Amino acid sequence: MKKKEIFLLLAIILLAFALRLYKIDRPIADWHSWRQADTAAVARNFVKDGFNLLVPKYDDMSSQANGLDNPQGYRFVEFPVYNAIVAFVWKIAGNTEPIYARLTTVAFTLFSTIFLYLVVKKLSDLQTAALASFFFATLPYNVFYSSTVLPAPLMVSSLLALYFFFIKWLENDKKRLFLALSAIFASVAILTWPIALFFFLPLLYLSFNKYKWSFLKKVELWIFAILSLTPFIAWRIWMLNFPEGIPSWQFLLNDGNIRFKGAFFRWLIAERLGKLILTTSGFALFILGFLTKFKEKEASFYFLWLISTVIYFVIFASGNVRHDYYQIPAIPILAIFMANGTKLLFSYKSLNIQRIILPMLALFLIISTYAFGFYEIRGYYWINRPQIVEAGQAVDQLLPKDETVIAPYGGDAAFLYQTNRRGYPIVDRPLADFVHQGTKYLVSVDVSDSSIQNFAKNCKVIEQTDNYVIIELSLECIKK
């Protein structure tokens, strides 16, 4: 890289880092705190109990995940690569404050920004690479989610690194180090979030583009595929030994037959792409980029990347409608098309329009994207129920460390996570059963609820304030 190019990329990285410092120390009680709490709990239990990557555990002992009791708190979803890294960072930091987990995610996103730049520069040019990495680094939606405690940013980072090293290997297939790195990052991406498999389609194109149909006979590619998939397959087979720890996931495909219904298109196109992620202005830049002519090689790669994203949206239809963090993997390719659309508006010399109009329009669309985007995303940072943090800290100070607790919060484990205890985020059985099983403490932030008031009246109250109450249950008091 030339010095100017290094300076440009460094400026984007520094800007990306600075933006993600906004409320970086917020507790795990912000938007999608339920998923963040589950992820963080696995990491925290690695710190508490030791690193056993083959048997990850979180704090939720309830049956809500799949209808089966889970007294050991098994958590078998993605392989806990991200969780283990966060736990390692916490070990170094000497505490399990959320800020260190969030900064870990930020670090992965900074690597993603670099690899996106390198991939796009390889396929396109410096201007497109700089604009794509800039949009990726600064879109408010991506700024928020790349400072959450979620594994998705690690998957994106691994996927972009995979693309880069695979392209480097194809440039000189004698350099097998690049192929080995590709296989490592491919495996990490799939283990971190299996939907990474959808994004292997561009790799098939690159292989076919170089070797034509003989790519099917290329031994190195078969080795790459085996190394990429074997750890994931082994993990999935191992998971079957712990059925109580495997959450139900089938509803993420097409729950309510939403696929291709009007609501499906409304949520993904209008609400997510057109309002939350790109906003109306950014979506206009994306459409312009989509309609702009690419060079043949980059066009095939980018459009197959985009098609992979669409296929993923369609297959996991209800998952993408229910959860807006499911669109995190789409950000790199959306940023690339936005970059191409922006370039079109600035390439006024080839257009029969006054030279000042289109650049001004581009700047207006870019500024509007960030203004509208931050307006939509700002509420995601808010702690709407700070009482759960206050109550959780009280539980952690007042109750023995080995006690389990009931912290009902509609099934959301964010409240339970604040207590630093294992237990139940939902009342999924009679209270007498909890007591028989050894869980005798109930903490609630719904102090005005009639049932909670009745328990507070008849049972032993450990502590009560206007915001929360901690109650010790017994078989005698819960019958009153």
What would you say this structure looks like, in words?
By secondary structure, the chain is mainly α. The protein has 2 domains: 3-380, no CATH class; 386-479. The chain is 61% helix and 4% strand. It has 21 helices and 5 strands. Strands 2-1-3-5-4 form a 5-stranded mixed sheet, with helices on both faces. α1 packs antiparallel against α4 (98-123) and α9 runs antiparallel to α14. The longest helix has 26 residues, at 98-123.
What is the helix/strand order?
HHHHHHHHHHHHHHHHHHEHEHEHEE
Which strand order spans the largest sheet, edge to edge or round the barrel? 2-1-3-5-4
Radius of gyration: 25 Å
For the termini, the CA-CA separation is 75 Å
Residues in helix, % = 55-70%
Largest sheet: 5 strands, mixed
* Estimated share of beta-strand residues: under 5%
Which structural class do you get from the secondary structure elements?
Answer: mainly alpha
Q: Estimate the mean pLDDT confidence.
A: 94
- What overall form do the CA principal axes indicate? globular
Number of domains: 2
Number of strands: 5
Low-pLDDT sequence parts: none
Subcellular location: Cell membrane
Membrane topology: Multi-pass membrane protein
Organism: Candidatus Curtissbacteria bacterium RIFCSPLOWO2_01_FULL_38_11b
Domain Glycosyltransferase RgtA/B/C/D-like: 80-238
